[in-house]
């Protein structure tokens, strides 16, 4: 697929997650709540996670921010649901590498997250894309002994 068509597809995926976010809301039966913000641009996220027996059973978010920040939160919650904590943390590390422009292992299925790969070209937007991921890491990083 030519680069322009791929860029357009990626933009469409990002806008779809921004306009129709997945997992928007607050988990009533959560056991992990994380609030983070990006003071540089004003993005804010409130992430709630339900982690049981070392598995992220559910994930929801609320927040305000740019399309990249909110789309990334939507994509992240979709990806980590029903995943083991160590697997979710691995996705966060892979995503971080992608944001830093590093080569990412092709065997890791990032799904819609791949649409955010172009953000690496815009250093000022990387914090927008990684906010939800940092919140998730903060929330479950301490629980990796489950």
UniProtKB/TrEMBL annotation:
Superkingdom as given in the UniProt entry: Bacteria
NIF system FeS cluster assembly NifU N-terminal domain segment(s): 10-128
SUPFAM superfamilies (alphabetical): SufE/NifU
Gene3D superfamilies (UniProt xref): 3.90.1010.10
InterPro entries with a match to the protein in the record: NIF_FeS_clus_asmbl_NifU_N
Secretion signal span: none
Protein name: Fe-S cluster assembly sulfur transfer protein SufU
Encoding gene (name): sufU
